[in-house]
């Protein structure tokens, strides 16, 4: 099983790679090659920083977005987006103006609204991950506690795409899913056993 971890200058690649290997990934390649992505059995897209910078970095690699779409939507490869890599699944991001996302899961990425003066932004640290009434990720996401670090959050248009929630002065989407695509707002690579268990399940996931 080959796994492509996409390098577009916007992720803590080595931490994610180490966590994936600890979770059982044996044939893992950190890559900026569309050809490698097009041939991979599974794809992981990390992301750290602003939505705009990440979107521009990904699109700056010629043919990468097309290779991802071909492998995931036509070839059916399981896909995992992490943090901003999850946010890029949205239709658009509203950080530093409007920036188009991949539009794989309809919705917007917008600033977390401060409804309580005691609530700090960014949302940083450990927080509960709770499951909803439906399970679009087909058992991939589990309830538990994960490490978050973000100021913007994904609001899907269709609640059926919400795989998990967390609470930070109100509900925030912790994970989204649709078919063979899943994204998590938290950092599995920083979430100790909870994160490793999730990555292990992703390596075996057959959506």
Structural notes for this entry:
The protein has 207 residues and is α/β, with parallel strands linked by helices. It has one domain: 3-Layer(aba) Sandwich (Rossmann fold), CATH 3.40.50.880. It has helices spanning 13-22, 34-39, 51-59, 64-74, 84-87, 192-204; strands spanning 2-6, 27-31, 42-45, 79-82, 92-93, 99-100, 107-111, 123-131, 144-150, 152-156, 162-167, 171-178, 181-184. It has a 9-stranded mixed β-sheet with strand order 2-1-3-4-13-12-11-8-9. It has a 4-stranded mixed β-sheet with strand order 6-5-7-10, with helices on one face. α1 (13-22) links the parallel β1 and β2 (27-31). The longest helix has 13 residues, at 192-204. The radius of gyration is 16 Å and the shape is globular. The mean pLDDT is 95. This is Imidazole glycerol phosphate synthase subunit HisH. Residues 5-202 form the Glutamine amidotransferase domain. It is found in: Cytoplasm. Keywords: Amino-acid biosynthesis, Cytoplasm, Glutamine amidotransferase, Histidine biosynthesis, Hydrolase, Lyase.
